[in-house]
Amino acid sequence: MKNVGLFFGTFNPIHIGHLAIANHLAEFSNLDEVWFVITPQSPFKQKKTLLDNHHRYQMVFEATETYPKLKPSKIEFDLPQPNYTIDTLVHLEENHKEQDCQFSLIMGEDNLKGFHKWKNYETILEHYSLYVYPRVSDGGIDPQFKDHPKIHKVNAPIMEISSTFIRKQHARGKNVRPLLPKEVWTYMDEMNFYR
Description:
Blueprint: E1 2-9, H1 16-28, E2 33-38, H2 53-64, E3 70-73, H3 85-95, E4 101-108, H4 109-112, H5 121-127, E5 129-133, E6 151-153, H6 163-171, H7 182-191
Parallel strand pairs: 1-2, 1-4, 2-3, 4-5, 5-6
Helix pairs in contact: 2-7
């Protein structure tokens, strides 16, 4: 049984914080692999700053290529929109039956605080584990999630880097190169993204 952690995000762009957390989980938890599930651009919310799906996939691919336990996933690109995490999980289960994968969700502590608002969150918790990494954020965690047997707090490093910050500062002409994997910086620079 392969234990796969699913790390959802727009990864616009993927940065060293994402890689550090994913790698920490792949190396220091009982997850065998971490898949970066790239959230597609919603047809209902066209965001000017959100790069096309294939460009974000390509950056995640480039960033993870030398990490055998980290993989890019475009599973959500083919699912009907708006898409919910529960639908992606069901879809993954159906498509990976023969590979004997057990899926878990990876999320920041800030996301756990709003988890009770997710579609079918009780069903998710019934069938899947959550791996929660620390984030600096306001508000408390719902008491029902405090000592839940399916929720694992991971002592990963706190990474206060955001893709939003990177895009904004890059557009202002600031050097953001140290915040990005080398391959991502090269791709972003060559394609003239976020300028």
